[in-house]
Design goal:
Helix 23 (about 765-790) crosses helix 26. Strand 20 and strand 21 (about 535-540) form a beta hairpin. The chain is globular. Mean pLDDT is about 90; it is low at about 1-50. It is an alpha+beta fold and about 950 residues long.
Length: about 950
């Protein structure tokens, strides 16, 4: 059956309604649709059967829907009337409804909010069956409920061909967008809107690959992995053949995604224009985007150096270093851990005698320009703002990978079988970055989610008798080197020889289209590369001119992880916790991996962790000299010695595991700041620990725990109680403060959640208390810390770690309305400081007391003063409004938006802080 699908580019807003006001009148739309729609052929029903050991107890969900392609006619209907293509939105409602439905959840009701993730499709539930391109060795069955493709092949080639064909049916436009993002060519392809400029700049700065670079990564991955490497290449080529077969069929049949017309690549009348075939290097470009977004921990060494120097300026070298280290929280004893059995996995620890540090001279650091020769809208104010945001995101150590996991050993469940509720928190897009599928063929048996364009294997999902998932881990695989300049600004000393930097450029230009009316513009992105990686900053060190570079262990190795995913899909390879751990050891990106089968659970932290010389502190830039390079580093291939598998945090059959991008294990330092006493991981840990202590855990109980955490304001649950203790340490006589305290305490007693008064009310219970805390937090943090730290150090520290990440605020790669919240903030600092002022025991305290200089009465005065100000701040000031929400609309400000990457739009849903794709699994037996 020919599927109709597709949307529009990585634009924050599709501009069709404003660009075509007359064209979208109802009569015009109906006339156009009459010429564009044709009957869809329906093949006879069929069903796939596979070995499934889950007993009907595997479920999953991925909003908004499986169908991510839309023809021009379907886009126009959606824009004019809100009509949705089939299966474009049918998983959004169940996903959203869990927020109010979890309180009465039972095991029998789980699939009210999730899909049945059993293998195969019952004959009565088959919506269509097709043999792509007329092949006899593969069929694609789609189910009635969600339209998910169930791909069954009798040959390996046919199976992968079918996977590629199904991917193009469901995500062709999105795949095309992201291959251009990965190549730094998004604006030329999809338009010059500022958000597109920012996106391509963010990724090009970190992965400025040439075509030769992309091909070399494929060649090396194949050459270094024996028969599995060759199988991966064969699978990729078959997958590409399936994608390209769909491109040809949809082009000739004129049911290709309508975004190609709206962006000027195809003509809706004559069908002139082309949709370029995919090639194997496109897959590496796609992988570089996903790896950079979710699996590349590290960076930020130059910012760390700037804040350290500011601390030393404020307090003196010795005390300033102590202050800096206390805020850094490398190994905070109060941090929540994934491996909580006391086992230590030292990595990234502070050396006793640091060597080779290349700290910049104060005030000399400048960011390396990326954009040159900008014209038109490539040089306007919006472009400059987007470029600045992209630069800050690209160079930060605060990688917003998101995702969470809750896994309970069978020893503590009602059935005696392990239970897992887990998934990646990848943001909300229309269509979604991930897609669901089931693949059954020689050497492959899995169902789950894969990133569009990389779905030759299931990347997160279930096999015949096991399931797996991941969260972003963020350990440091990125280092900064200071290379001394010689001759001019584009030559540097490498092992004593003056060496020219390599210049890599990408020239982009754009003109207005129906989809994006941004006026014409252009620019050149230019990166200077050294053997130590791309140049990111310039400065002086001891008066010498240097360039600071960034070297990532996964740079030039974006394709390597394919072997690990191939293994995860292979039922003959994964049959135990140990073989699962062996598989994910082949994934070089920084992830936490979780596993559950009918008897066992497991965890493993992946990533190519470089072995540094013993004196190198990974927190700061070091000199680009042989003595400070990774051990056995080869700049030609960017390979080095990596820490052995045994040194990575790992565990089998711990009582339970939780992860929400928190600290992995004792002495294992992550690159980002904020792993302290208060972390969103505590929201999961506290709930799961309580369930395990009681025993008899069920799937619904674990889902409830996840959902309850997803609706809770972290600041309210873990910090607000002690703030109120300080205020109530004496009788409150200020009437404004008294009223505010009463509201906050009432909200806290009710659970500190951001939930609707009733399903669909679009109004929060305890809304005024929520407004007060949202207004109060930034005021109290500044008043608490800035006087002691001083303005310069406070500003430098906020560059390392933002003070807040509330649901309504713009943060992360997609800005506001992104769901994920409370990953980075000053909650731990406030918690430790306030507890210290209260005289409570604090393990790993801050080096100084800040609130009121340590005086309880002075601290109380600060809190009351700022609380008064917050209480008087109007909702319209706290929530200023945007293109979706009116000023003061609290619920809307928090709400989740499926950000349009194509032409189809969806309704916004109530806030939840939970994975985008999520599984609920409990296997009943094992092979």
């Amino acid at each position: 059956m020919q599927r109709r699908t597709r949307h529009h580019a990585l634009f924050d807003k599709l501009r069709t309604p404003r660009k075509l006001p007359g064209f979208l009148k109802a009569a015009s739309v109906c006339a156009l649709i009459a010429g564009l729609l044709s009957p869809l052929a329906q093949a006879p029903a069929a069903a796939a059967a596979s070995n499934d050991y889950c007993g009907g107890q595997c479920s999953d969900i991925l909003p908004p829907g499986e169908n991510g392609n839309a023809t021009l006619a379907q886009i126009l209907l959606n824009q004019a009337f809100g009509t949705e293509p089939s299966h474009a939105e049918d998983q959004l409602g169940p996903y959203a409804n869990l927020a109010t439905g979890a309180s009465t959840l039972t095991d029998a009701k789980i699939n009210t909010f999730f899909n049945d993730a059993s293998f195969g499709v019952a004959s009565s539930q088959v919506a269509s069956t097709e043999s792509p391109a007329g092949r006899s060795d593969v069929t694609i069955v789609r189910d009635k409920a969600t339209g998910v493709p169930h791909i069954t092949g009798t040959t390996r080639y046919g199976t992968e061909f079918g996977a590629g064909y199904a991917a193009a049916e469901d995500r062709l436009w999105l795949m095309d967008v992201f291959r251009h993002v990965g190549r730094g060519q998004l604006t030329t392809f999809a338009g010059g809107v500022a958000s597109n400029q920012g996106l391509e700049q963010e990724f090009y700065r970190n992965a400025p690959y040439t075509e030769a670079d992309l091909q070399a990564q494929i060649d090396n991955a194949v050459a270094n992995n024996g028969t599995r490497g060759q199988q991966a290449l064969d699978d990729a080529n078959a997958y590409l053949a399936g994608i390209n077969a769909y491109i040809d069929a949809s082009d000739s049949g004129r049911y290709f995604p309508g975004e190609y017309v709206l962006t000027g690549h195809k003509d809706s009348i004559t069908n002139a224009g082309t949709i370029d075939h995919f090639k194997i290097t496109d897959l590496v470009a796609l992988a570089s985007v996903i790896g950079t977004l979710f699996g590349s921990g590290g960076g930020g060494e130059v910012n760390n150096a700037i804040s350290l120097l500011a601390a030393q300026e404020q307090y003196g070298v010795t005390e300033g270093t102590k202050v800096w280290e206390s805020f850094r929280e490398r190994n905070d004893p109060e941090a929540v851990l994934t491996v909580h059995n006391g086992e230590s996995f030292p990595y990234g620890t502070k050396p006793s005698d640091p060597q080779g540090e290349a700290l910049p001279d104060a005030g000399t650091v400048t960011t390396e320009p990326l954009v040159y020769d900008a014209t038109g809208t490539g040089a306007d104010q919006s472009a400059s703002a987007a470029s600045a945001t992209a630069t800050a995101t690209a160079l930060s150590s605060a990688k917003r990978g998101m995702s969470n996991a809750l896994v309970v050993s069978g020893k503590y469940t009602a059935s005696g079988h392990p239970i897992a509720v887990f998934g990646p928190q990848t943001g909300y897009f229309a269509p979604q970055l991930l897609m669901l599928q089931e693949i059954q063929g020689p050497g492959i048996s899995a169902r789950g989610a894969s990133f569009a364009g990389l779905s030759m294997y299931v990347e997160l999902g279930r096999g015949q008798d096991y399931s797996w998932s991941a969260t972003t881990s963020g350990q440091d695989i990125i280092d900064s080197y200071a290379v001394e300049l010689c001759t001019d600004d584009y030559h540097y000393l490498y092992h004593g020889t003056c060496t020219a930097m390599d210049k890599v450029e990408q020239k982009n230009s754009w003109t207005p289209t129906t989809a994006d009316g941004t006026a014409a513009g252009s620019y050149t992105m230019r990166v200077w590369k050294t053997k130590y990686g791309p140049v990111e900053y310039r400065a002086t060190v001891g008066g010498k001119k240097v360039a600071y570079t960034t070297l990532r262990s996964s740079y030039m190795h974006e394709a390597d992880s394919i072997i690990g995913f191939q293994m995860l899909n292979d039922p003959s390879f994964v049959n135990s916790p140990q073989t699962f751990q062996s598989a994910v050891q082949h994934i070089n990106y920084t992830f936490n991996w979780f596993y559950a089968d009918s008897s066992h659970t497991a965890y493993y932290n992946s990533g190519n962790n470089p072995v540094r010389p013993s004196g190198v502190d990974p927190e700061f830039p070091v000199w680009g000299q042989a003595a400070y390079e990774w051990q056995n580093w080869d700049p030609t291939t960017n390979t080095a010695d990596y820490t052995p598998a045994s040194a990575h945090p790992q565990s089998i059959d711990q009582d339970y595991y939780i992860s929400w991008n928190n600290k992995q294990a004792l002495d294992y330092t992550t690159a980002s700041w904020g792993d302290g006493s208060v972390h969103r991981g505590n929201l999961l840990n506290d709930r799961v620990k309580k369930l395990v202590a009681a025993g008899g855990v069920t799937r619904s109980a674990l889902v409830k725990a996840m959902s309850d955490a997803s609706l809770t304001d972290l600041r309210a649950e873990d910090v607000l109680p002690n703030l109120l203790k300080v205020i109530n340490s004496s009788t409150v006589t200020d009437s404004t403060a008294t009223a505010a305290v009463t509201k906050l305490q009432t909200w806290l007693t009710a659970g500190g959640k951001r939930t609707e008064t009733s399903a669909g009310s679009k109004t929060y219970a305890n809304s005024d208390a929520i407004r007060i805390l949202d207004a109060w937090w930034p005021l109290l943090v500044k008043a608490e810390f800035q006087p002691g730290l001083g303005s310069d150090l406070y500003t430098a520290m906020t560059a390392n770690l933002p003070i807040d990440e509330a649901p309504w605020a713009a943060h992360g790669p997609t800005g506001s309305h992104a769901g994920s919240s409370y990953q980075y903030g000053w909650w731990s600092y406030v918690d430790k400081d306030i507890r210290s002022v209260l005289g409570q025991t604090v393990s790993g305290p801050l080096a100084e007391q800040y609130c009121g200089g340590g005086s309880l009465s002075s601290c109380r005065n600060i809190l009351i003063s700022t609380l008064d100000t917050a209480a008087g701040t109007s909702a319209s000031t706290v929530y200023p409004g945007d293109s979706l929400c009116s000023a003061g609309d609290q619920w809307c400000a928090d709400s989740i938006v499926q950000r349009t990457l194509g032409g189809i739009k969806h309704y916004n849903i109530s806030w939840q802080n939970r994975p985008t794709f999520q599984q609920v699994v409990e296997f009943t037996s094992h092979r």
